[in-house]
Write a structure and sequence with these properties.
The protein is of the alpha/beta class. The chain has one domain. The chain contains eleven helices and eleven strands. The chain has an eight-stranded mixed beta sheet with strand order 4-3-2-1-10-11-9-8, sandwiched between helices.
Length: 359
């Protein structure tokens, strides 16, 4: 997704990108910190932006806001006939729609994306109790971004996400849509990354714009000044304990959490979950995105624990994208989707809650 639609489709069919960092057998255990899950927020770039929206909608009772950079509306890739396709057939059908209709905007004549229909999909899933009630979104605060030079996910797709939030009851005053910066397909910083307007690894772009601070302040309101350098702890933890009984989850062996000093000492910190983009995972680019996107600088003074779950490469997902088209199975949009379930288990660990019978 981060490398362009046609090239990305070719990669799905023909490439198998190797892991660049081996799993560390010394990974730590994700700690229990007594965080307040009722103040949880999410964000992500590209496929990670789609996953941020999926997690927010699936767990709307818990998530209070989302930042979606170069991502589109919830359920955009879901094909009307996907339920009739056995095995991986639905995912391949969704994939074509994902690229042509939910990245490149080449399916306008077929009504893709359609925020009204997607709102109906969300309400239907809520009525079946596969996601939380959509009324849980009514007070959410949302940040959406599309760069004017992004040719991977076009601005009209991000605008459709804003329209969907309105269809689901989020007040327009709670939605911040930024579309006037000359950025490519990347997460923006004020001092690190490739030149503004370019698209390429590590998908961090120096546009003199602190996107981490902008989206966090949209979600949480005015923030305390950021701390440079951050003084907390980056913890590389073993994700496998959260995925052992989940089929086809696609997650990597290791994830990362950032814990500010105050959140070690006192309970009640909030959590912000950050979903990386395609080809932006720890195994491929190391900790560049984790440490340079700017979130940690805001975390210390604002009592925010940061969670960076990680996806790995697989045959069906060679660019390590979060699942927004169904490669993990038919539940991918719901609380029972293996990736959504695994991240929820991580949050439960941070809070000290049991992961059993909580829905």
């Amino acid at each position: 997704m981060a490398s362009g639609g046609a090239r990305w489709l070719g990669a799905i069919a023909f490439l198998a990108i190797p892991h660049l960092v081996a799993c560390d057998s010394q990974d730590q255990v994700l700690p229990t910190l007594g965080v307040d899950l009722t103040e949880t927020s999410v964000s992500g770039l590209s496929a990670g932006g789609y996953m941020a929206g999926q997690f927010q909608v699936a767990h709307s009772r818990m998530v209070i806001g989302a930042g979606i950079i170069a991502g589109g509306p919830y359920g955009c890739a879901e094909s009307a006939t996907a339920d009739a396709m056995p095995g991986p057939g639905a995912a391949f059908m969704n994939l074509s729609k994902a690229i042509n209709g939910c990245m490149l905007d080449a399916m306008q004549s077929w009504g893709v994306p359609d925020p009204v229909r997607l709102a109906e999909l969300a309400r239907s899933l809520a009525q079946k109790e596969r996601i939380d009630a959509v009324e849980g979104l009514a007070q959410d605060r949302v940040y959406l971004f599309s760069g004017t030079k992004d040719r991977t996910v076009l601005p009209v797709i991000v605008q459709a996400a804003a329209q969907l939030y309105e269809q689901l009851g989020v007040p327009r005053t709670n939605i911040k849509l930024v579309t006037d910066l000359p950025a490519g397909h990347a997460f923006l910083t004020d001092d690190y990354g490739i030149a503004c307007g370019r698209t390429g690894e590590p998908y961090l772009s120096n546009c003199n714009y602190d996107q981490a601070g902008e989206l966090l302040s949209q979600i949480y309101g005015p923030l305390q000044p950021k701390v440079t350098p951050p003084s907390g702890e980056f913890i590389v933890f073993d994700q496998r304990e959260f995925t052992r009984d989940l089929p086809s989850h696609g997650l990597g062996s290791s994830g990362v959490a950032y814990v500010p000093p105050d959140c070690r000492a006192m309970r009640g910190c909030r959590v912000h979950v950050i979903f990386h983009g395609c080809n932006q995972q720890l195994e491929r680019i190391g900790d560049v995105f984790i440490k340079q996107a700017g979130f940690a600088n805001w975390a210390d003074a604002n009592r925010l624990v940061l969670l960076y779950p990680q996806v790995t490469t697989t045959t069906l997902n060679p660019q390590a994208c979060w699942d927004w088209w169904g490669y993990t199975g038919r539940d991918y949009l719901t609380r029972n989707g293996p990736q959504i379930e695994a991240v929820r288990r991580m949050l439960d660990r941070l809070a000290g809650h049991s992961s059993v019978s909580r829905n």
